[in-house]
Protein: MFS transporter
Organism: Amycolatopsis thermalba
Amino acid sequence: MSLIGDQVSAFVLPTVAVVVLHAGSVEVGALNAIASAAYPVLGLFVGVLMDRVRRRPAMITADLVRCAAFATLPVAAASGVLSLAQLYVVAAVAGVFSVLFDVAYQSYLPTLRSGEPLARGNARLEMSSSVSRLIGPVPGGALLQALAAAGALAVNALSFLASVAGVVLVRAPEPTPGSHGARTGVWRSIAEGLRFLWGHPLLRPLTVAAGLRNLGMSAVRTVLVLFLYRALALSPGVAGALFTAGAVAAVAGAMLSGWLAGRLGVGRTLLLTGCEGLAWLAVPLALVLPPVGIVVTVMVVSSLWLPIWNAVVTTLRQQVTEARLLGRVHATARTINLSTIPLGALAGGALAQLLADAYGDRTGLTLALVLCAAVATLSLPSLLVAGIARIRHYPSPAPVSGGTAEGG
């Protein structure tokens, strides 16, 4: 429910800003930037915190704070005092505590299961994430249509209470955090997580590969919107259907991740996820063949692979990292990986403008898409050099150091 709440919020907040508060493009852009800035700014510090406290109470706290933050919006809307400034504050608070929840649950899951059960758990979480991205705008739009801004915002706040209920029902024991971390300074703790990640022969190439694919695919997504409307002259309805097809494919990919890793091996499955970027190299065919058929095929093939990558890489990271470092290592990897997304968006927009001016919309935007996709495929060499293809099974869990079991 927390994932669905995040996706509903991602749709409802900018919609309320535009429809109710008449915000312009710069103001909406600022709102989205504020909502996504928490990981690059605070991710490393949250990782340290999650290695010093129990993760389950942190998840509950994160949901309760997000619920309280969003609950202020319907009150303000009903009173006629809702403002952009309040939306900015709520987006910032929600962003910070979404990072806390993310790091906490990724660090908490390995205390519940390991090996293949852990891989299945990550696959289910990735499927939940894919489903929430698919259906999030649907209830968001329906709530706004049926209940207006105040009602939609109120229901959105309540979704986080449903998430709290789910976390409370998990009663598995959680190890007590070791006392060593509390005696170490924050910056030294951050450095320890960075050293472990960058010095690990498996985690380093995976992190580099993820950063490159995020950089390239973020640029692809930026150029794609321009390509669909300007180069192919598609209507918003058709473009929306194409994105929906991609979201459905992502759900299917999440469902297939466990089967593929078991059938082909972990390493080969990771190499196959390079199809996410490779598929977009075929997009020039849309200029000479029926464009909708080509684009929907490319989007479906490409969208299958991100949830598979996420589920497999997350499991590998959890398996090879000591429990006392899980929060820091996960937060460090996510901070590096997610920081390349805004860079890719900016680079994709600049490249699209440059090439469209030089060669026209059809040729220039097509070329921009191909170049951005080529950047995403640069993730493959780092995986090949590291010998990732030789990994058949998930490794045994890293040894646990310190801490005692205690009921959750």
About this structure: The chain has two domains: 1-175, 183-393. Residues 326-359 form the longest helix (34 residues). The first strand starts at residue 174 and ends at 175. The domain at 1-175 is CATH 1.20.1250.20 (Growth Hormone; Chain: A;).
